[in-house]
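Tutorial handout. Part one gives the primary structure; part two gives the three-dimensional structure as tokens.
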Amino acid sequence: MNSKSKKPVLYIIIEVKAREIEGRTLLGLEAARRGFRVIIGDYVHILSGIRKGILPKGIYFDKCISQDKSSKLEEVYEKGFSIISQDEEGGLLDDTYDKFLSFRSSEYNMSMTSAIMCWGNYDYKYWVKRYSDRFNDIYMTGSPRVDFWKNVFSDYHSKEISDIINKYGNYILISSNFTLSNGYMTTDELIKQGKENGSINSLHDEENTVKKINDTRKMFLEFVKLIDYLSENRKDINFVIRPHPSERISIWTDEIKQKSNVHVVFKGSITPWIRAAKALIHNGCTTGVEAYAIGVPPIAYVPFESVVNRKVPNALSTVTHNKYDVLKIIDSIYNNNYSFKSELKEELINNRYYNLLNNCAINNICNILHKYKSEDQPNINISYLKKVKNNFKEKLKKKRNVDNKRNRKFPYLYKNELNDIKNRFPDYKYINIRHLYKSLHVIEE
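Part two.
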């Protein structure tokens, strides 16, 4: 890292590893190809290095500027970093973006932010309307995660898809989105978190949150019944349940009856699991959008009306209200007698996800990054990093396999995982990746 050449530094934050590692690594590779020194990893270790003065000034590419992040953003901003954000939660699944934007941003946090990258025309319009004075610093780029939904990336997961199909055959994927009831936080903790991040501002908001938690639990139990019914009536089909990264897997394994054709699996990115599936069953989940974009039939199971029935992913799916109709659709799919796309659905998805039809998001974002770059200064304190790295090894062995929210969202990031992504793209064969310390890695040409 004591390179004599001055390079602008780009920090790329990963919050949920399984969800973001591919898209954000691809962004890092492209940025490195364009002359950046990229440091990628989770915010805990990046922020720690910034606080200690061992990581130099650069662009801090964060996952959101929500109200509860003011103190963290202040630390980065006051050290001269350029803060750029694209909200990884998206906020694209409902009819309105106002509520989402009200707690995922603030005037104060926006004043410290150099630029905002939007997923598509839908969120872009809301950002520009709320922060009209910052019009020139709000960009419609698309998301690197969505790049992997495009047809040009269809071969990227070919090995994983082959391995999955060899093990599970022509299976049905069931995507779980029940973190409110199956996660690591109690109702009281969720309410406290909501008050801190600005999503709960009144008694009405609090009551609505409790209702969402109760409805999520009820929806989860309805899915358990659905899976029991489907697996019993189609014993020739495997049903693979994919828990959300913030869910406890044990909740699923405790509820699902032991059946040879039902499998609870959380492994790697969800994209190859969608591409390998015959169909996807969900309720209000982003995976419904991804499945539609990829060309895998999404089925939205809506056994009762509730605020947890997110409108956009369900609108892109075939909505069913009972287990019998779900089985009929599955039969049609396996009989190759099923269609699910329409002009209205195409208009809906392309309004929210800009880069499905246009240039890859990584290109759009990298075209903008150079406007906000600063030179690498000072050099990284190598001797300090070596000391931190050695002390961390023993602690890591004890913590890595603990079942908690942090390890489910961001288990240790290995260099070979980043190299595996890099090696699938010939354009990046001259890019080097090396371990820096803890879960941080350097990507540069």
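Part three, for discussion. The chain has 21 helices and 14 strands. The chain has two domains: 9-148+356-444, 151-352.
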